[in-house]
């Protein structure tokens, strides 16, 4: 557990980006990010415990408090994404565990709006698990080098959190994101001949 805790609590650094623990002092910047037209396409409550939307800065502040509470309780972890050259906040990333990558995803995709699917898993449980990586960045930075930097840094989550598989959302129209996910070994998530859009999946074996 100590190794996982060290992975979870640290600040990460890539070639272009820094990933720092979420903080309310960046409320205005994060609110600006979450009103971006590109990022809004990825806003949903698939794996959330509350409704995931931001009508104003107060709602953003409440959400930040929820993220921080989850962090303190080691339930899931979210980092702000900041550019190194300009120290600009351009979004967030999050890692959470999920029970599996088929039945659970089917349930969250098909659930009614405003309802929540129970997720009994915990990132600090013993044994190998499955994870969902959330990548929320603004349109100006929805670029190959940015996605590449994020995926290079989060590659360590497989070993750090003992993940067997990791899934990431990618809309069909999002060619830039898909190109980089393909490069990093993600592929369509299928179950009994059904493709589970909008999720792509990567297994531990593909990460080696």
Helix residue percentage: 25-40%
Strand order of the largest sheet: 1-2-3-4-5-6-8-7
Q: What is the CATH fold-level name?
A: Aminopeptidase
Rg, Cα atoms, Å: 16 Å
Overall mean pLDDT score? 86
Stretches where pLDDT is under 50 for at least 5 consecutive residues are: none
- Any guess at the CATH architecture? 3-Layer(aba) Sandwich
Apparent shape: globular
Order of helices and strands: HEEHHHEEHEHHEHEE
Would you identify the CATH H-level superfamily?
Gcn5-related N-acetyltransferase (GNAT)
Q: What amount of the residues lies in strands?
A: 25-35%
| Count of separate DSSP helical elements | 8
C-alpha end-to-end distance: 23 Å
Highest-level CATH class: Alpha Beta
Going by helix content, strand content and strand pairing, the class is: alpha+beta
Number of strands: 8
Largest sheet: 8 strands, mixed
Protein name: Protein N-acetyltransferase, RimJ/RimL family
InterPro entries: Acyl_CoA_acyltransferase (IPR016181)
